[in-house]
Amino acid sequence: MASEANFKRESQHYSILHLALHGEVSDADPLYSKLKFSPADNDSTEDGYLNIYEIYNMNLNSELAVLSACNTGYGKLEKGEGLMSLGRAFQYAGVNSLLLSNWGVPDEVAPALMYDFYRYLKQGMKKSEALRNAKLNYLKTAGIHKSAPFYWGSFVVIGDASPMEIEGGRSRNWIFALISICFFASVLWTSTFRLTERPL
Predict the structure, then answer these.
(1) Which one of 69, 125, 143, 148 counts the least CB within 10 Å of its CB?
(2) Is residue 197 pLDDT above 50, yes or no?
């Protein structure tokens, strides 16, 4: 289940984190920008909202976090602090590289882009190169009405863009995916990846 409690409990054990959730940015109080998880039954400790201030207190050792949600790279520019985004919080928590969105992500486009991103990453491409090729592949079939940058230009890679080994390559890798109802189509491609815990 894509619950906040599951993420907090399990996320530090995986080198790839993929969250296809709804993101909400608060300009009034950036520390309360959040990712919305599925409501957890009988859980009085978590409210289903993973706020920036909570992410700052996490200890993540992931090589890559894919935040396939709306506005995960967007935030308020605070004097002396910089951009207060969800992506920055994940970097602060220890993630080496991020794939973020800078505006609202169309539900029908994101799953295809993410599928191709992982496919190219598995081939040994740099993260930035894998994303570029995923976008180019999308444009080949998008058609004139869905080829505008609005549909595909939101996603960017920041941090360490170097290649990484994922399952099926020369060494094993691990992915922890949480899919919410608003991105139900993502299930079509996440089924191609095994959920394997990293040995400690």
Answers:
(1) 143
(2) no
Distances (CA, A) of 84 to 34, 50, 161, 190: 11, 15, 21, 29
- Of the candidates 77, 177, 45, 72, the residue with the CA atom closest to the CA atom of residue 118: 177
Two structure tokens written together for 61: 């050792």
Q: Report the CATH number of the 4-190 domain.
A: 3.40.50
Does residue 139 or residue 191 have the better pLDDT? 139
Where does the pLDDT of residue 44 fall: very low under 50, low under 70, confident under 90, or very high at 90 and above? low
Distances (CA, A) of 33 to 16, 89, 188: 22, 10, 28
Using CB atoms within 10 A of its CB, is residue 117 exposed (0-12), middle (13-18) or buried (19+)?
buried
Give the tokens for residue 39: 């409501």
- Which two structure tokens, joined as six digits, stand for 191? 């089924």
Give residue 38's pLDDT band: very low, low, confident or very high (50, 70, 90): confident
- Check: CB of residue 34 under 8 Å from CB of residue 72: no
CA–CA gap between residue 134 and residue 31 (Å, rounded): 32
Residue 40 DSSP code = P
Please report which helix (H) or strand (E) contains residue 140, including its range.
helix 127-141
Query: For the chain, what are the domain ranges?
Result: 4-190
Secondary-structure breakdown of the chain: helix, strand, coil percentages, each rounded to the nearest 5: 35, 20, 45
